[in-house]
Design a protein that fits this description.
Length: 306
Amino acid sequence: MIPLDEAVARIANESPAWHAEYQAYRGQLRHWIHKGALTNPAGHVVWDMGCGWGAFSLAFLAEGAKAVMGTDTVIDRTRMPAALFETDGLRIVEGDTAALAASAWSGADGPTLLFMHLVSEHVADLPALLRSVRSNCPAGTRLFVHHDNYYQPVGHHDHGFLSYRPATHSVESNASRCWESPERCEASAVHRETLRRERDWQWSAASEATRDPASCDTCNYRIRAEPWAHLAAAERFTRVFPEAFFTVALNKITPFQLRQHLVEAGFDIESDVRDLLTNSVPEALAGKFTEADLRTFTVTVVAVSR
């Protein structure tokens, strides 16, 4: 094993892009700690649940954590620096979170701080996972959940079409407005080709086949170009979103359900903060969903096991 400083130096030299992401994530941790949203990890054993490429895991160690365990259902070593797996105090483990919970507290130094960043929305049975974690952890274990709300303008994760704009704190369309152009479909050809090349799990041949210059209103490209497309097209969802990702990758729980699942699993809520977007809610959706849910970008919940 190698010391943290040596590991970070090696990563900066060998994987500069990954190192830049690590620095950004460390900055985010510091922001949450400064705001009081996240417990200072110094001296804590941290479990980074759904660690992805491990950048937050390393950031926790750099912020003073006693030890860190990063876990995910799939660990893609090809996207992670080799030094990450050699860093003293850091373990990266592949496996199901609920199953790992049974062994996470088997040793003398079980986790005292649990961290879930943009992973809770991807858990198919979130209540079962939370119950598994709670049934294995001691009282007083702290849990931080940063949840991407399904009911916000791009809560369905169709990021090839819709992106967050920091300057306006809103979600806006990336689409080429071909339906307004005399060229019709040709005006969006480059964007559609980019989608097929870079996001084939979200823009497939099935969606491309709906393209019809004579009937833009039935074209998936036109429909999905607008914020909240997943909610506006709910009654024809499987046609507008034929790709498997949209039906299996997200659990679609509401902000209320997130809080209630935590309570029912055995956690007490300390804080529950919504990050509200500036997007104006379409009139057609206002009567079906609450404005608060529609404009909630993310939800940050801090809880303690009782």
